[in-house]
Amino acid sequence: MRLPYAPKTFQPPPSSSQNIAAKATAAVYAQTAARRAPQTLQPLDLTLLHSPPIASGWNSFFGAIRTGGILPASVKELIICRVAVLNGAVYEWQQHLPLLMEHSQMGKRGVQEIRDGKRSQKGAISKTSADSGLYYTDDEGNLCYLPQDEEKDEPAQTTESVADLPGEGLSERQWAVMAYTDAMTLDVRVPDPIFERLKALFSNQEVVETTATVAAYNCASRFLVALDVGEMVSGSQ
């Protein structure tokens, strides 16, 4: 990380035990710990806690995105993982891919389609044999690999068709979400056909929550990458 992480526990100086600012900071630490429970504080939390007011607002906003509303968790995690691919946010990908798999029971074929942004075609994709790390598509349409850490050797390259991977590819509903996520992330303005396709498959509330999720995790991914939270950016290719 480009900054030192904040302490994992807040211990105010004895002289500040009645200080309003110290009490407020302690409350934000407690709020963040409660949001993460039963897990411990994550590197992202320990970055945000340098600014307790920002951490508090982040907890409220992302708590609503993650646990509020009616949008299924499987859709939210699809959005988050696609944003991670588009923005090269390795930390975000590694945190949320297990959640995507948990909530959607998605197979490797679906995951690869999220990485590549294209429907499965026989013999169309060249992928690495690594089971971890992040794939992204460069400006020339090549599938590229971001290693988990800078000390690990690059995995050997193998050629394997996405269509031959286990599991089903993405559904039409999932592709509608993918297209909307790509448009918001890459172009900001969403073309009418892409919006109408999403609107036909989701309720008004779900469209609002889909839009909020894409926007929120573009914010999160840019924050993570800019500060190299989790030490995932340095040495990436």
Please characterize this protein's 3D structure:
It contains 9 helices and 4 strands, in the order ααααααββββααα. With 237 residues, it is mostly helical. The strands form 2 sheets. The chain has a two-stranded antiparallel ribbon with strand order 1-4. A two-stranded antiparallel ribbon has the order 2-3. Strand 2 and strand 3 form a beta hairpin. About 19% of the residues have low confidence.
Please tally the helical runs, counting DSSP H or I stretches of 4 or more residues: 9
- How many whole angstroms does the radius of gyration measure? 19 Å
Mean pLDDT over all positions: 81
Helix content: 40-55%
Q: SS-based structural class? A: mainly alpha
Summarize the helix and strand pattern as letters.
Answer: HHHHHHEEEEHHH
**What spatial order of strands do you see in the largest sheet?**
1-4
Instruction: Give unreliable regions as ranges.
Output: 122-166
Strand content: 5-15%
How many strands, which pairing sense, and closed or not: the largest β-sheet?
Answer: 2 strands, antiparallel
Shape: elongated
For the secondary structure, the number of strands is 4
